[in-house]
Amino acid sequence: MYVRTVQREQRIGPPTVDTELRYQRCTWCSTVVFRTVLLCPTCSSTELCWSTSPGHGTVSGVVEVRRKGHRPRMVAVVELADGVRMRCLVKGMSPCAVTPFGASVSIVEVAPDGIPVFRLDPLRRERW
To answer: Matching Pfam families, A to Z (predicted)?
Structure first.
């Protein structure tokens, strides 16, 4: 019996590094899915391919989330460089500060619960 090893150029599956931002895109309807699924939620196609984002984008919206017994946290909508909008956390934004719409951000890590954590880029932070 012979075992043949196949080298794949494109990685398959969820990210293996904490700072890598990967998502699934449907090849039929181009819907973007951030959680690992077997079927596209829009067209029910099984042809989903993995894409890697560069991890840079701009802030399009921010809201402060308060829960009883927890500290308030800032949840932002970030538009990535490849045109995808996603919900995430942004480090460096305080609840009392002015909301930096259009500020440049880059990824720091992906939390264990799957929510990406971005940080304000230092060059843009001085401007705000």
So the answer is: zf-ChsH2
